[in-house]
Amino acid sequence: MKSKLTFLFLTVLLIGCNNKNSLSFEPLSVQTEACENCTSVQIDIPKATGKTKLSATINSALEGEIIALLNFDEESNAKNLEEAKDAFLNDHEVLSNKFLEESIPWEASVEGSISFENDELITIKLASYIFTGGAHGYGTNRFLNFDKLKGIELYQENLFNNLKDFTLFAESQFRQQENIPANHSINSTGFMFENELFYLPSNIGYNENGLLLFYEPYEIASFADGPITLTIPYKEANPFLKYPKKP
Protein backbone atom coordinates (compact mmCIF):
# COMPACT_ATOMS: atom_id res chain seq x y z
CA MET A 1 0.00 0.00 0.00
CA LYS A 2 2.83 2.33 0.92
CA SER A 3 4.56 1.77 -2.42
CA LYS A 4 1.34 2.56 -4.27
CA LEU A 5 0.91 5.82 -2.36
CA THR A 6 4.55 6.71 -3.07
CA PHE A 7 4.05 6.01 -6.76
CA LEU A 8 0.86 8.11 -6.79
CA PHE A 9 2.64 11.01 -5.05
CA LEU A 10 5.54 10.92 -7.49
CA THR A 11 3.13 10.80 -10.43
CA VAL A 12 1.22 13.86 -9.19
CA LEU A 13 4.50 15.63 -8.50
CA LEU A 14 5.79 14.96 -11.98
CA ILE A 15 2.54 16.12 -13.57
CA GLY A 16 2.67 19.28 -11.47
CA CYS A 17 6.25 19.94 -12.57
CA ASN A 18 5.36 19.36 -16.19
CA ASN A 19 2.39 21.73 -15.96
CA LYS A 20 4.27 24.39 -14.04
CA ASN A 21 5.41 26.11 -17.19
CA SER A 22 2.30 25.38 -19.24
CA LEU A 23 0.68 28.51 -20.60
CA SER A 24 -2.35 29.30 -22.70
CA PHE A 25 -3.79 32.51 -24.08
CA GLU A 26 -7.04 33.98 -25.29
CA PRO A 27 -7.45 37.10 -27.45
CA LEU A 28 -8.16 40.38 -25.67
CA SER A 29 -9.46 43.36 -27.64
CA VAL A 30 -10.14 46.90 -26.41
CA GLN A 31 -11.31 49.43 -28.97
CA THR A 32 -13.33 52.53 -29.62
CA GLU A 33 -16.52 52.43 -31.62
CA ALA A 34 -16.10 52.95 -35.36
CA CYS A 35 -16.53 56.62 -36.21
CA GLU A 36 -15.45 58.64 -39.22
CA ASN A 37 -12.90 61.36 -38.41
CA CYS A 38 -12.85 60.39 -34.73
CA THR A 39 -9.99 59.55 -32.42
CA SER A 40 -9.52 55.80 -32.43
CA VAL A 41 -7.94 53.23 -30.13
CA GLN A 42 -7.41 49.60 -31.13
CA ILE A 43 -5.71 47.16 -28.78
CA ASP A 44 -5.35 43.47 -29.64
CA ILE A 45 -3.16 41.40 -27.36
CA PRO A 46 -2.90 37.84 -26.04
CA LYS A 47 -4.24 37.46 -22.49
CA ALA A 48 -2.71 34.70 -20.40
CA THR A 49 -5.38 32.46 -18.91
CA GLY A 50 -5.37 30.53 -15.66
CA LYS A 51 -4.83 31.64 -12.08
CA THR A 52 -1.07 31.29 -11.98
CA LYS A 53 1.71 33.65 -10.98
CA LEU A 54 3.04 33.57 -14.54
CA SER A 55 -0.31 34.52 -16.08
CA ALA A 56 -0.77 37.36 -13.61
CA THR A 57 2.77 38.63 -14.26
CA ILE A 58 2.34 38.58 -18.03
CA ASN A 59 -1.06 40.27 -18.00
CA SER A 60 0.07 42.94 -15.54
CA ALA A 61 3.22 43.71 -17.55
CA LEU A 62 1.36 43.98 -20.85
CA GLU A 63 -1.30 46.18 -19.30
CA GLY A 64 1.28 48.46 -17.69
CA GLU A 65 3.22 48.82 -20.93
CA ILE A 66 0.11 49.74 -22.93
CA ILE A 67 -1.12 52.18 -20.29
CA ALA A 68 2.24 53.94 -20.55
CA LEU A 69 2.02 54.03 -24.35
CA LEU A 70 -1.40 55.71 -24.23
CA ASN A 71 -0.42 58.15 -21.50
CA PHE A 72 -0.26 61.44 -23.42
CA ASP A 73 -0.02 63.95 -20.58
CA GLU A 74 1.95 61.72 -18.18
CA GLU A 75 -0.64 62.39 -15.47
CA SER A 76 -3.10 59.61 -16.22
CA ASN A 77 -4.26 57.51 -13.28
CA ALA A 78 -5.54 54.72 -15.53
CA LYS A 79 -5.53 51.36 -13.79
CA ASN A 80 -6.56 49.17 -16.73
CA LEU A 81 -6.83 49.20 -20.51
CA GLU A 82 -10.37 50.56 -20.61
CA GLU A 83 -9.39 53.49 -18.42
CA ALA A 84 -6.27 54.06 -20.53
CA LYS A 85 -8.40 54.14 -23.67
CA ASP A 86 -10.80 56.64 -22.09
CA ALA A 87 -7.90 58.80 -20.86
CA PHE A 88 -6.46 58.91 -24.39
CA LEU A 89 -9.82 60.05 -25.75
CA ASN A 90 -10.17 62.63 -22.98
CA ASP A 91 -6.69 64.02 -23.59
CA HIS A 92 -7.59 64.55 -27.24
CA GLU A 93 -10.83 66.27 -26.32
CA VAL A 94 -9.14 68.61 -23.84
CA LEU A 95 -6.45 69.58 -26.34
CA SER A 96 -8.98 70.00 -29.15
CA ASN A 97 -11.02 72.40 -27.05
CA LYS A 98 -7.94 74.55 -26.56
CA PHE A 99 -6.94 74.56 -30.24
CA LEU A 100 -10.16 74.17 -32.21
CA GLU A 101 -8.66 75.17 -35.56
CA GLU A 102 -5.86 72.61 -35.30
CA SER A 103 -7.95 69.72 -34.02
CA ILE A 104 -7.41 66.46 -35.88
CA PRO A 105 -8.24 62.89 -34.80
CA TRP A 106 -5.65 60.94 -32.87
CA GLU A 107 -4.88 57.27 -33.38
CA ALA A 108 -3.49 54.54 -31.18
CA SER A 109 -3.03 50.91 -32.14
CA VAL A 110 -1.27 48.15 -30.23
CA GLU A 111 -0.94 44.56 -31.38
CA GLY A 112 0.63 41.88 -29.24
CA SER A 113 2.05 38.57 -30.41
CA ILE A 114 4.24 35.79 -29.07
CA SER A 115 7.69 36.35 -30.52
CA PHE A 116 9.31 33.29 -28.93
CA GLU A 117 8.53 30.53 -26.47
CA ASN A 118 10.23 27.46 -25.08
CA ASP A 119 10.02 25.55 -21.78
CA GLU A 120 11.85 28.25 -19.83
CA LEU A 121 11.09 31.58 -21.44
CA ILE A 122 8.47 33.47 -23.40
CA THR A 123 8.86 36.77 -25.26
CA ILE A 124 5.85 38.88 -26.20
CA LYS A 125 6.15 41.62 -28.80
CA LEU A 126 4.00 44.74 -28.69
CA ALA A 127 3.85 46.54 -32.04
CA SER A 128 2.39 50.00 -31.56
CA TYR A 129 1.59 53.14 -33.51
CA ILE A 130 0.62 56.38 -31.79
CA PHE A 131 -0.42 59.57 -33.59
CA THR A 132 -1.23 62.66 -31.51
CA GLY A 133 -0.83 65.35 -34.15
CA GLY A 134 2.26 66.78 -35.75
CA ALA A 135 4.02 65.77 -38.91
CA HIS A 136 3.91 62.04 -38.27
CA GLY A 137 2.99 59.36 -35.80
CA TYR A 138 5.36 57.15 -33.85
CA GLY A 139 5.60 53.43 -34.36
CA THR A 140 7.75 51.05 -32.39
CA ASN A 141 8.10 47.54 -31.02
CA ARG A 142 8.46 46.59 -27.37
CA PHE A 143 9.68 43.18 -26.22
CA LEU A 144 8.73 41.73 -22.84
CA ASN A 145 10.56 38.62 -21.66
CA PHE A 146 9.33 36.28 -18.91
CA ASP A 147 10.77 33.37 -16.96
CA LYS A 148 8.06 30.72 -17.22
CA LEU A 149 9.26 28.63 -14.30
CA LYS A 150 9.66 31.48 -11.80
CA GLY A 151 6.71 33.46 -13.13
CA ILE A 152 8.65 36.73 -13.28
CA GLU A 153 9.38 39.40 -15.87
CA LEU A 154 12.98 39.51 -17.06
CA TYR A 155 14.84 42.77 -17.47
CA GLN A 156 18.02 43.38 -19.42
CA GLU A 157 20.34 42.52 -16.56
CA ASN A 158 18.48 39.22 -16.04
CA LEU A 159 19.13 37.94 -19.56
CA PHE A 160 22.92 37.71 -19.56
CA ASN A 161 25.62 35.88 -17.63
CA ASN A 162 27.80 38.98 -17.86
CA LEU A 163 26.23 42.15 -19.25
CA LYS A 164 29.57 43.86 -19.88
CA ASP A 165 30.92 40.92 -21.88
CA PHE A 166 27.78 40.74 -24.00
CA THR A 167 27.84 44.49 -24.64
CA LEU A 168 31.40 44.23 -25.97
CA PHE A 169 30.39 41.32 -28.19
CA ALA A 170 27.26 43.11 -29.40
CA GLU A 171 29.33 46.15 -30.32
CA SER A 172 31.60 44.01 -32.50
CA GLN A 173 28.53 42.56 -34.25
CA PHE A 174 26.97 46.00 -34.65
CA ARG A 175 30.16 47.42 -36.15
CA GLN A 176 30.35 44.50 -38.56
CA GLN A 177 26.72 44.92 -39.66
CA GLU A 178 26.98 48.70 -40.07
CA ASN A 179 30.50 48.69 -41.57
CA ILE A 180 32.05 50.73 -38.76
CA PRO A 181 35.82 50.16 -38.52
CA ALA A 182 37.01 48.88 -35.15
CA ASN A 183 39.51 51.73 -34.81
CA HIS A 184 36.92 54.45 -35.52
CA SER A 185 34.35 56.08 -33.27
CA ILE A 186 31.04 54.25 -33.03
CA ASN A 187 29.47 57.45 -34.42
CA SER A 188 31.90 57.80 -37.31
CA THR A 189 29.32 56.70 -39.89
CA GLY A 190 26.51 58.91 -38.62
CA PHE A 191 25.07 57.23 -35.54
CA MET A 192 24.29 59.27 -32.43
CA PHE A 193 25.37 57.18 -29.43
CA GLU A 194 25.69 59.43 -26.39
CA ASN A 195 29.30 60.19 -25.43
CA GLU A 196 30.33 58.20 -28.52
CA LEU A 197 30.08 54.97 -26.54
CA PHE A 198 28.18 51.90 -27.70
CA TYR A 199 25.33 50.71 -25.50
CA LEU A 200 22.56 48.16 -25.73
CA PRO A 201 19.04 49.24 -26.65
CA SER A 202 16.22 49.33 -24.14
CA ASN A 203 14.43 46.69 -26.21
CA ILE A 204 15.93 43.20 -26.40
CA GLY A 205 13.85 40.15 -27.20
CA TYR A 206 13.99 36.57 -28.39
CA ASN A 207 12.59 35.52 -31.75
CA GLU A 208 12.96 32.45 -33.94
CA ASN A 209 16.01 33.83 -35.75
CA GLY A 210 18.05 34.88 -32.73
CA LEU A 211 18.37 37.52 -30.05
CA LEU A 212 16.97 40.79 -31.41
CA LEU A 213 18.39 44.15 -30.39
CA PHE A 214 15.88 46.84 -31.31
CA TYR A 215 16.92 50.51 -31.25
CA GLU A 216 13.88 52.74 -31.46
CA PRO A 217 13.77 55.81 -33.72
CA TYR A 218 15.76 58.63 -32.07
CA GLU A 219 17.60 56.20 -29.78
CA ILE A 220 20.83 56.17 -31.78
CA ALA A 221 19.85 57.73 -35.14
CA SER A 222 17.47 60.26 -36.66
CA PHE A 223 13.75 59.57 -36.99
CA ALA A 224 14.16 59.37 -40.76
CA ASP A 225 16.47 56.37 -40.31
CA GLY A 226 13.72 54.46 -38.56
CA PRO A 227 14.46 51.71 -36.05
CA ILE A 228 17.88 50.08 -36.13
CA THR A 229 17.92 46.34 -35.46
CA LEU A 230 20.59 43.74 -34.91
CA THR A 231 19.78 40.03 -34.78
CA ILE A 232 22.44 37.81 -33.21
CA PRO A 233 21.97 34.12 -34.10
CA TYR A 234 21.61 31.86 -31.07
CA LYS A 235 24.73 29.94 -32.00
CA GLU A 236 26.67 33.12 -31.25
CA ALA A 237 24.44 34.56 -28.52
CA ASN A 238 23.96 31.40 -26.43
CA PRO A 239 27.31 31.57 -24.55
CA PHE A 240 26.24 34.94 -23.11
CA LEU A 241 22.63 34.04 -22.30
CA LYS A 242 21.24 32.88 -18.98
CA TYR A 243 18.39 31.45 -21.07
CA PRO A 244 20.15 29.92 -24.09
CA LYS A 245 18.05 28.50 -26.88
CA LYS A 246 18.46 24.76 -26.91
CA PRO A 247 18.91 22.98 -30.26
TrEMBL record:
It holds the Pfam family DUF3298. Residues 161-235 form the DUF3298 domain. PROSITE patterns: PROKAR_LIPOPROTEIN. Residues 36-137 form the Deacetylase PdaC domain. InterPro entries: DUF3298, PdaC, PdaC/RsiV-like_sf. This is DUF3298/DUF4163 domain-containing protein. The lineage of its organism: Bacteria, Pseudomonadati, Bacteroidota, Flavobacteriia, Flavobacteriales.
